[in-house]
Amino acid sequence: MVDFRGASAGAVAALTDQLKANGASEGLAGELYSVAGLLRNDPALRRFLADATVAGEAKTGLVAQVFGGKVSPATADLLKGIAEQRWTGAGDVAKAAERLSEIASVLGAGDHRALCDELFVIGRTVNGDAELRNALSEPNRSTADKAGLLSTVFASASPAAQELAKQSLSGSYGTVSKALEAYRRLAAEVNGEGIATVTVAAQLTTEHAARLETALAAIYKRPIHINTVVDSALLGGVKVEIGDDVIDGTIATRLENAGRLLAG
């Protein structure tokens, strides 16, 4: 997930607050994502909007000229906000529009934890299916065709999950898998939570999962939502991944470490 710095970090925070205050109307996420694509493909427009020497009135005027009558009032209001903000670099303008589209999808979902779970399942499915993964990365296959494939495979997913899955095809993350993981983290973060991937030898009971979430919340000083992977090869114990942190208490790892000690 993109980390904004300096003026851009403040701009994205202000625009996120604006989006949360106004709410995510139907179609907002899709419109913002289309705008992000236009900005990615128009470096001159990006540079103009990021140029600190250009008056704010000129920027908002150009935004109104380019997008007037083509987007909803909610989208137009956010684009006006983008034009009024200060940016660290021109590239951040397009990335900010993309981030706002992602946040709009999360807000529109309602149940962000359910969305985290859906994105986790979609990501695991893509990573575990070589044929699907290759089809989604095929350069000669159109984005529309790939989007149709995702709609077919994940037809039972919520509208928000399907929207984000389609966005993963042509955003700034490089691969579908990276995009889906970023969206999962964002769905938690927008709602003040962290996200953990927990790998265990057998499925956790509801009670055990709740206890683990409570323990992790005490460590990280905020609520933590967990997604679980079952891997019988671990034999027992638990492995927790939160961002760059890895807590590995699995029996398989302990045995491996013991084997190294004996071999050494």
UniProtKB/TrEMBL annotation:
GO terms for cellular component: plasma membrane; proton-transporting ATP synthase complex. Keywords: ATP synthesis, Cell membrane, CF(1), Hydrogen ion transport, Ion transport, Membrane, Transport. It comes from the Bacteria. GO terms for molecular function: proton-transporting ATP synthase activity, rotational mechanism. It is a peripheral membrane protein. It is found in: Cell membrane; Membrane. PROSITE patterns: ATPASE_DELTA. This protein is part of the stalk that links CF(0) to CF(1). It either transmits conformational changes from CF(0) to CF(1) or is implicated in proton conduction. F(1)F(0) ATP synthase produces ATP from ADP in the presence of a proton or sodium gradient. F-type ATPases consist of two structural domains, F(1) containing the extramembraneous catalytic core and F(0) containing the membrane proton channel, linked together by a central stalk and a peripheral stalk. During catalysis, ATP synthesis in the catalytic domain of F(1) is coupled via a rotary mechanism of the central stalk subunits to proton translocation. NCBIfam families: PRK13430.1. This is ATP synthase subunit delta. It comes from Nocardioides baekrokdamisoli.
